[in-house]
Structures are given as structure tokens and as C-alpha cells.
Amino acid sequence: MKKSVYSSLILFISFFITLVLSGKQEAKFNSKIEEKNRVKIVKNPEESRYGEIEFDLERDLVIGSDDDERYTLLRVWDIKADDRGNIYVLDSGAYRIQKYDREGKYVQTIGRQGQGPGEFERPINLHFDKNRNLYVAEMRKIHMFDPEGEFLKTITIPFFYMDFAADGTGNFFVTGHVRADSAQNLGVLLINSQGEIVKKIAEFPGVPRHRTGVTLSHEYSPSLRFSALGDVGIIYGYNPEYKLYCTNWSGKNVLIIEKDEPYRSISRGEKNKIIDDAFRNAASAESEWPRNVVEKMANLPKHRPFFDRILVDEKGRLYVRKLKSVLDESRDEDFDIFGSNGNFLYSTKLPFTPLDIKYGCLYQTNYSEKTGEVQVVRWKIRNWKHIKEGIQK
User: Fold this and answer.
1) pTM of the predicted model, to two decimals?
2) Mean of the pLDDT values across residues 52-75?
3) How many domains does the chain have?
4) What is the spatial distance between Cα 367 and Cα 75, in angstroms, rounded to a whole number?
5) How far apart are CA 292 and CA 257, in angstroms?
């Protein structure tokens, strides 16, 4: 009897200790949720909820060959996979989009070099709207094609923009420079089908102009990072702060994601590299600024920006690439993964930066210095189904 009571007591104590420890661990990883002006704010700790995850990658498709013009790629700037598995490759070097099916078989060519309808001068990225229409961005234009690749129209934007997303009803979100008195501030703008500014969504400090009237950008300059967020709207972030803004298609913030990430000071070695590179670039452009002037023009921040890319998968998970030191020559890239509701789920390392993450696959551009051949590589994520979505029950 005593032995039974003793055993029960030991089991109870063990269970209690396990419960307490697990409770502490769960509390450690819990995010804090607030609401301000009807906007949900998710404040995440520095550590992810589920720790570090390693993607089990398997190379299952390679597109690209110099033996067939339909598969010859020159300079790939963007890749997008649609919900049917088709792969769209923006080959800026050939001024065209090559469409392949899920097996990598050539389907069609969209666009060509020129200035006429459906022709490109400098295509830079792709986007699909909710109706599966295809959009191709240039510096001051957006070309629209239907789901079959037929040209529909060109929208002219009255300024240079960087990123864009289409809502499917004729409106666009774009990021670009908004001029201010002392700096070219960075803004997120809502544009209509005539290219007119409907609404300014956000504005952030840009790179201050030097007294010479020149702005000098570099790896640590403040920037806006931006991506379409499926049917929801867009996601953007100003990288001197670890804060991401989810905005619906009407231009209203619906979710703000924050992460408690420590600031990283910029070392003397990092500063020297940035200034040396800028000085060499100025010299090659036949500019005669002294090095100390170039250093002032660089306007180095006190801290390194947090991230430099945002990718979104079909489940609304966010993959935020953390900005590496300019002295880091490793190939690995660090990513933070957030659920669609803002929870910081995982940290991970990838051996490259994918141009798209969709339906359990990563899409990469591979350039062979030996042969000069450019290829698109699709990597299957074999543990894709085990990656949590972060939805709290």
C-alpha cells in the first residue's frame, strides 16, 4: 500500500514538474497581441515558437538548355508559379516570359523586345492578380496579359517605382520614392488604372541628399520591402525597423507584425567595405569626389537594417530574409518564417534565395560560370506538409 502511494506521489510530482516546465516554455515563445485603431498588432519574441527548421530539399526539375531556343535563358530576373503548377520565367535578357508546365515542358512565349503593345524594353518582375491575369513591370509601365497570355493593355505610371501588386479590379499598389525637402522618402502608394495616385498608404525616411545633390545608396541604406499577400492584399516593411504591415486591397492596415530583434551595430570593417566600394564605383563613373566626401554621401546608419526580402507562399506564410553583413561571404541565407496570423514560427537557413515559394517548391536561378548556361531549378520540399501554419486553435 505504501509502495503504491509512493509511486503515485512520484508520478504526480513528475507530471507537475513537466506541466510547469512546458508552461514556462510555451510562455517563453508566446507572442503578445494588442489592438490599436482596430488594427491587430502581434509582438513576437526574438525566438521562434517552434525553433529552427531544416527544409528537406530534393532537386526535381531543371529548365534551361542552349540546344533549344525555347529553353535558352539569358538573364532571369523573376520566376512565378501559378496554382496549376505552370512556371513563368521572366528572361530580361531575351525580353520575354517563357511559360512551362509543371513537368517543365515549353508552353508559350509572352512578349518580345520593342515599344509596341505587349513588347518590353526593360522587364523586371511578374505578378498575378486574383483572376490569374499576368502583369509585367517595367520602370514606368505595367503590362497586363490575360490568363492565356494575350496582351490586354499597358498602364503608364508617372514616376519610377520599385515593386507592385495588382488587386484584380484595375488598381495597383506600388513602392517608390516620395520627394521631400531633404531626402527622397520611401512610400507605398495606391494607383488607379490611369496611373493616378489615389492614396498614400505609408511614407518612411529615405536616403538624405548630400549638399552635392546626389544620393548614394548601398546595402545598408533604408529600403521598403514588399510582396503581394494573396487575396488579402499586400505586405510591406521598412527595414530599419522589424515591423511588417499587412494592408488589404482598399489600403487599410489590418495586421502589424513586430519582432523583438536586437539592433546590430555596424563594424569599422563593414563601414570601410561600403565606403571603398562606393569610392571605386564613383571613380569608375569618372566622379572625382574625395573619399571623405563619399563617406558623408553614404550616410551610414548606426545599425544594420533587419531584412532585405519578403516572400509569401500560398498559405500566407511569410519568409523574411535577414540582411547579412557585407563581410559575410557564406552562401547560406537566414530566413524568419511567420504564419498568416503574424506568429513567428521558425527560423531557417537556405543555401540560396528562392525567387518563389509555392505549393511545396522553391524556385531558383542557377548560373554556371563554367558553361555560361542559365537554368531554372525547382526544389521539392519533402517535409512541406510538416511545416506548421501557426493558426491558434
Assistant:
1) 0.89
2) 94
3) 1
4) 9
5) 39
